[in-house]
Amino acid sequence: MTRKRYLYLHIAVLSICLLSASFPASGQGGRRTGLQDSRGANADRSAPRLVLVIIVDQFRYDFLDRFGDLLGKGGFRRLTGEGALFTDANYDYIPTYTAPGHAAIFTGSVPARNGIVGNTWYDRQAGRVRVMVSDDSARVVTNDGPAARTGAPSPRVLIGTTIGDQMRLASNLKSRVIAVSYKDRSAVLPGGQRPNGAYWFDSSSGAFVTSDYYFKELPDWVKKFNSAKGVDKYFGAKWERALPSDVYERAGSGNSSNEANKSGKFPYTITGGDAKPGPRFYNAFQATPFASEYLVDFAEAAIEAESLGSDSFPDLLSISFSTPDLVGHAHGPDSEEVLDIYVRLDRVIADLLGKVDRRVGRGNTLVVVTGDHGVSPVPEYISSIGMDAGRLSPRDIVEAANRSVVARFGEGKWVQGFVNDQLYLDRSLIADRKVDSAEVERLAGEAALTVPGIVSYFTRSDIIKGRIQAGSLSRRVMNGFNSARSGDVWVITRPFMFVAEGNLAATHGSPYSYDTHVPVILWGPGIRRGRYHAECSPADIAPTLAVLLNIEPPSNRTGRVLAEALATQ
Q1: pTM for this one?
Q2: I want to staple 211 with a disulfide (CB 3.0 to 4.6 A). Which of 138, 316, 361, 394 is the partner?
């Protein structure tokens, strides 16, 4: 062999060796259990291995300040002190409900784009009100397998992708996405189109379940968790105040709308009226501080079983705490119960963060905390201190609208439904009578204004044709309007007034600050600590995470990147 040919052969062998070192061998492309980084020497090793998104249902911004001195050092105070706190984050759409809030956080968009127009909506084709995430082709999956009945939750109604979907796409499905909550919509929508799992609590059995949209059988770790029946240990537990009783003087008492929901009736014995653990107990359990503890137990089981944060492909875990919303609806935001729930939730989150630190590593986890909406004060409480407040009956609005249209165009049930503060008109009747739909909408809207407490309305025709006056309220209506799913006339109440039936002490859904203003907290690698006062929205979280993870943002994103809180690379 000549010297030149020997040199060529040596170079070829060396090149093959280098290529072999750069690519994994066949069959090694699956999930890794170590910390090997197959992206090469130039990989960004500062990128998080776990994105932990914590949503607190009904987390009004002012709770951070009102309860701040009662909180420990390891929970909210740790995150706000070491991370980035956005003080002027508002949802820029209505209605401000749970499903649209969770969708906005993870899609980075608004109902007009992602299609999640409420917790429920009026399905014109079916002629009935539907739960937003209900899927006629899906079945609930329990420890025993798929149930016989259909109508289980799935994300099929969601339009576009979530940040978790984008993480999965960017990693060739190696990133893992898990979402857990007590409410089905609070797990389904954060999970996105194709997560590795979305789980919620079934109050009929006291177990965490999923639907066969995801898989036909629960993973073994979920079956094991359910089989242990850990929830039953809370049967008969007493919910006592976590702090000395004089601390609770800052909370209102007796400000609920009815005697059953009056504040400050501690201790609460958790049985639901059952003699032993059963559906009524499991339902009551969710509105106690013990429920947040148990949800974290389940989330920690998911972290371990799914090996979240164990390698260089970043994973996402979404935990949505539903209990504050259930307690807030029952007792109102100024109650002793809400104060106690947040003090205890702070401890639960501190414990979770400590365990994640030990398992994944303090410098390897990116934490996001926000709320899906705020909450109104109890109207009776506001009235008692001399301010104008009240409750409106949806029946009064529907009857006023229908009477007005009947007087002009003749007998008929012109209003088919009233959902999300929107009148849905009978389009078939409008077509049969050969009347102008815009005029029917106007008549219905003007009639709604005669109901005390209604101050404005918007019609479908004006929204679609761009004939509404510019302003923050108009923008929130337009951002919440989806032409396929929204109603024909949108009514707006006065502040501190809401449309509701039943005996809930307080609710949400309005365009006012007490419903739109929530905290946004970012903590972890790539985040510059500080308080930031520029206007922003929870819809900005997903595009910001996309920048931190160096991936494409969700397909329908409308939010901006919160660049002011990003550390210089």
Answers
A1: 0.91
A2: 138
